[in-house]
Design goal:
The complex is a heterodimer of chains A (about 230) and B (about 750). Chain A is of the alpha/beta class. Chain A has a single domain, classed as Rossmann fold. Chain A has seven helices and ten strands. Chain A has a six-stranded mixed beta sheet with strand order 6-7-8-3-9-10, with helices on both faces. Chain A has a four-stranded antiparallel beta sheet with strand order 2-1-4-5, with helices on one face. In chain A, helix 3 packs parallel to helix 5 and helix 5 runs parallel beside helix 6. The N and C termini of chain A lie close together (about 10 Å). In chain B, the strands form four sheets. Chain B has a six-stranded mixed beta sheet. In chain B, strands 9-14-10 form a three-stranded antiparallel beta sheet, sandwiched between helices. A three-stranded antiparallel beta sheet of chain B has the order 11-12-13. In chain B, helix 6 packs antiparallel against helix 7 and helix 7 packs antiparallel against helix 8. Chain B starts with a helix and ends with a helix. Classes of the chains: A alpha/beta (about 230), B alpha+beta (about 750).
Chain lengths: ~230, ~750
Amino acid sequence: MTVEPILAARAVAKSFGPTQALRGAEVAVGRGEVLAVMGPSGSGKSTLLHCLAGILRPDSGEIWFDGQRIDRLGERTSSQLRRDRFGFVFQFGQLVPELPAVENVALPLLLGGQRRSKAMAEAGGWFEQLDIAGLEQRRPGELSGGEAQRVALARALVAAPAVLFADEPTGSLDSLAGERVMDLLVDAARSRGTTVVLVTHEPRVAAYADREVVVRDGRVSALVQT
Amino acid sequence: MIRLGTRISLAGGAEAITRLVATALGLALGVGLLLYAAATFPALHAHDVRGGWYATSAHNHQPAQDEATTDPLLWRLVTDHFQGRVLIRVDLAAEGPRAPLPPGLTRLPGPGQLAVSPALARLLRTTDKALLGNRFPGQVTATVGPAALVAPDDLVVFAGHTPAELRAQPGVTEVRSIEAAPVSHSITNFLRVILVIGSVGLIVPVVVFVSTATRLAAARREQRLAALRLVGATPQQTAAVAGVEAALSAVAGTAIGATAFFATRPVAAGIPFDGSKFFVADFRLPLLWTAVIVLGVPALSIAAAIRALHGVNVSPLGVMRGAAAPRPPSARSLVPLVAGLVLLAVALAGAAGGRNQGLLAVGGLAFAVVIVGIMLAGPWLTARLAAAMARVARRPPLLLAARRLHENPSAGFRSISGLVVAAFVTSVFSGLTPAVVGQASTRAVNAPRNQVFATLMVLTEDNGDGIMAPDRAATLLHTLAATRGVTRVVDFRQPPPGLALPSETRRTKLPQGLSPGHHRLALVRCADLVATALTTCPAHAATAVTYVQPLSGGQTIIASPQPARQVPAATLATLPLEALVATTDGSAATIERVRTIIETSAPATAPVTDADVRLVRLHLLTQLQRLSNVGLLLALLVAGCSLAIAVSAGLIERKRPFALLRLSGVPVSSLNRVVLAEAAAPLLLVAAASAGLGLGVAAMILKVVSVSGWHPPAAGYWYALAAGISFALLTVVATLPLLKRVTSLETARFE
């Protein structure tokens, strides 16, 4: 599959004290591509995702997004980039516990300055698509793990990000709920042309991706075409 | 379990120790303040007890000696002044070997001997005699001990005379005992109610603070307890471990607080928060209250730690917070507040009806119920506010704040409850005191500050009126007029017998402030009277007859001058002198020199300036206001610290969602606004409501007990309220670096 890269890491190295998490990692993600980053625990796959997302600044190497080098951006620009162009889904606990589900989903739009009524309407639309209609007014504590992840997915996608970063999105779910979340995640991304960077150590989850890379000892050492 | 709990608490390394120390220091502050609150009443009472002998008279309420067994003592106490300080001068002469001995003396000073307080002794050594020492000539032979001194720096002198010498002077009373009853304030009950209010206002924020400080370590503690559950501990055992951990910091905090109390007493004793400094020993702790504090604070802390576990289910797999929101407060939570207000109104109505018995108890109880009512109604008001905020919120910070407050209004209110109670109590206090101050102020003379008043008339039933014969008066007036810095001396003369007075001065209705039986009439040259700027003189009159009344505080009322054409101005010098007003250049030296000259000629006289009058008359009220301000400052300080801790604990609890929000690109400034809005919205609304309620309660009290009409609080109150709220908001701002730290990207990665 030949795709135009939208996001790329070039010779990225990152250390935490004496521990070298990344040692010259190279990876490129095409526009609209779903990339799975696999690897054993402690291999550096989450560090790679965080560098790609502008959360961590590499010690050396470069990160490019949509033709712009982003690894030297300031905090403000980097935050704005993450808010406007990226979406995030984590393993658990990213929802604000006091907000009803629909307001959690609307949060990125509100933060972007959208009117509340419009933001709520837009957020409400995602509940039907992600098969969680009727849960709009529930608070995170009243949702099951799978439901909460779907709300988190809606929140990650509501601002139409160019890239969705998902870090072990099914890590806290049973296999059935995990599959349901992955189905929805991949379908939603594909239907909108959203690029997905998916960190997982589960081959079953990685199987949803267009392409898999394996991080081992800080290097992207294997490339497998699916 | 105690050993295990201790090991777990202390074995957590530097972080655990830091947490314990921080909690212990918080509790130490609370304990220290509570101990000071408990010691304040005995300290104030000590002032009253030691000042009781000032009221010694022929008819003492509580004689210190058996009057049947003592010899007479000639006694004259004059409240003099020196450079803005009160100077108590007692002239005495024993008429027998068994004459009563005043406190602070080991023997009575003999004729020509002086016993002076240490502060006065220092002053006499360093001050020109013409300014002070000449007022009581004699040899200093003894030092007045602490038993006679309200404050360590009080100026007191006992001057010995021969009985014959003293009997010839005005203002002297024969006493057979010294008064031992403590100073009785004219508004004692009112004062006590206010002090009770003030104490409650301080204690509630401190209790909230103690409870909050204990919760500081709650989040981390829960994680450790979950690990214990995993290895088989029962919920009761985990509660015991939590209790032990809280007890460690509580016991340490109590010990530190108590040590700090005793260590800082010398500093506190030097603060004249009721207008006079204290002896260190005045801050003694009542046994009961000490026991309540020393045992109660650790108990409260342990209870708060165990109670904090009720909100969470510490399971072997970790800590799960309740999924369901706490039950929202209902309007029924307003019932105690309304009941308290009704009870207060009933108690006040009883007092107004003359049934004073039990007023203090019922009024205090009602007030306590009102405060509890505020604590219970606060969450309801916060919930209503949060619902309204959520409806109108356009921006995420306000929406997040509103939702969090609505989710748990009790927690939201708890963090500001100390401040809210302080605002309420201070508002009641500040609503009451201006009314009383205003009542007193209406009687004050607005005289120029460079004038010295001397009323030679003496308020005594025993020993003449003390007016000065014309020849001695001439010498005194001449000496004063020749004194450097004196610009004018106005003399008020006794009208000659049989003088036909204008009808105006014979009217039955006296000018405001004058009392029947105590005022006199005096003749004065109109040109002089006008020059004093105290009052005007009738047109075309050379001489006026005016009311003159000395008041107990040294103040002289000069009012309603009428023409006295039948008395030529030139003849005034032949009449006895009743009073005089010396206008000076305003310098302290001139004023004190004038005082000394007058007192040398008229020892029963205590010449005063307008500043002295205000000092004496408003002394009690000044005490109240100072106490109010000190209480308010402490309460606000404590409440601000509580708020900071509560906000910090809230941040730590929400570390993960906040960190992940920031990681997703939410700027930290937005999160800052969330935290500020959460604290500021209920703080501003509920504090405003409490302040309004407090002023309303004050108005109700004034209306029912009819002390005086309603006066708006002084500017100082509004400044203090604004400063308190600003301080609280600043404490919230001070926690924002913590938010930045706990949500830093480095931290968030590992969430």
